[in-house]
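Minutes, project huddle
Topic: does the predicted pose make sense with flavin-adenine dinucleotide bound?
PN asked that the exact inputs be recorded in the minutes so nobody has to dig through chat later. Recorded below.
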Amino acid sequence: MSRISRRRAIVSTMATALAAGVTANSQDKKMSKSATWDSIVIGAGVFGAWTAWYLRKAGRRVLLLDALGAANARASSGGESRLTRGSYGSDEVYTRFALNSLSQWKWLSGQSGLPVFHPTGIVFFFQKREAYVDQSLEVHRRLQLPTQELDRAALERRYPQATWKDIEVGLLEPGFGVLMARRAVQTLVGAFVKSGGEYRVAAVKPPAADRALSQVELSDGTTVSAGNYIFAGGPWLPRLFPRLLGQRIFVTRQEVFFFAPPAGDARFGAASLPGWADFNDGDIYYGMPDLEGRGFKIAHDKHGPPIDPDRGDRVASPGALADVRAYMARRFPALANAPLNEERVCQYENSSNGDLLIDRHPTADNVLLVGAGSGHGFKHGPEVGRYASELLTGKLKTVEPRFSLETKAEQQNRAVH
Ligand SMILES: Cc1cc2nc3c(=O)[nH]c(=O)nc-3n(C[C@H](O)[C@H](O)[C@H](O)COP(=O)(O)OP(=O)(O)OC[C@H]3O[C@@H](n4cnc5c(N)ncnc54)[C@H](O)[C@@H]3O)c2cc1C
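Predicted holo structure (tokens), as shared on screen:
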């Protein structure tokens, strides 16, 4: 066999394996080290995977790389589940992103053997009628969302498994619900590979220069090159671009707990309880019903201390456990002493105010930066991917100021909830 036909045979074997959904890692050692793609996406979390998907849909040759694997346990997208909701106060840009993403999540659900989207509905409730309530309702009316306002009596009638005596008003969003995060991203990467995209487990070294990139170096010393590069490294972005993002993305430790409802008690399952969030004067607690037998999920949305995504340990603190137990005793008294099923430690990669980052690198004009999910980014994954790909294909000419690097300050002042 000549060298050329041997190479063709390898490429054809690889394409067949990828089309069959085999992960690329078993094949990638055979890849030509000098191969060139239109785009290389670094990071197969929710943002990178959707960006790769949309670029592929636009006919681009795309290589998707992840250092630890798609939606791995240390990635922000590696958790079990994420809420999707349309209430964002007056921040209509995020209501629109969440709403437009929903049809893509439903499509992805159809690609997976198991649900990616659970249409549980979402109830967001408030101790007092915050401006946020009327602003959300106003935006939802304009976008023709069927959001319902519930007073305390209605909340008590619908959800007697919770106590509502301190609550004035709730917003019920029947069309939204819960996304199965890890499953979603891994299903999407499978679909991306089946559509002809290439995926490899490989770590990209931080680019050395602040000018247009001709290639990136991998941790094994090889290089890969493309016309443009999308860095969607989530909480690792500050490490990839320390001078640019080291002070603009704040990575915080977040703790999540799953509790076992009483045996035979269906009140905390998805048929009786929607996904929920307690506004709590801006100091939000949120949770989800017992989905797929994992348990009732709860977390305090408050930013934790800084964490290193590579080295930070993943054992929850006794303080955080006590905090959510105290909350459950107040709000869901039947769960006050529920046994703990599981704990997870993850991280938020926060911008100064909670706005997403989707913008070109200021000096390396073939580099796009995508990240700063800020604890609410997962639901927006499809729209982030579409937006990023349209910036690269030229369909979008300007960057929405809310997503620009310029608007990312070096002091934290959280404003997006
Ligand atoms: C506890 C918790 C609860 C949350 N709840 C919600 C919620 O209810 N609703 C919601 O919408 N959002 C929620 N979020 C936010 C959401 O999960 C994140 O905004 C989103 O997952 C961020 O995705 P990402 O793709 O930017 O980053 P990641 O998922 O972290 O992906 C980045 C990827 O880049 C890879 N990578 C990094 N560096 C390199 C390198 N040098 N080379 C190659 N690969 C690299 C990593 O391995 C990783 O897989 C929550 C987050 C957490 C932590």
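Observations noted during the meeting:
- Confidence is low (pLDDT under 50) at residues 1-34.
- Residues 119-176+249-350 form a domain with the D-Amino Acid Oxidase; Chain A, domain 2 fold (CATH 3.30.9.10).
No decisions taken; revisit at the next huddle.
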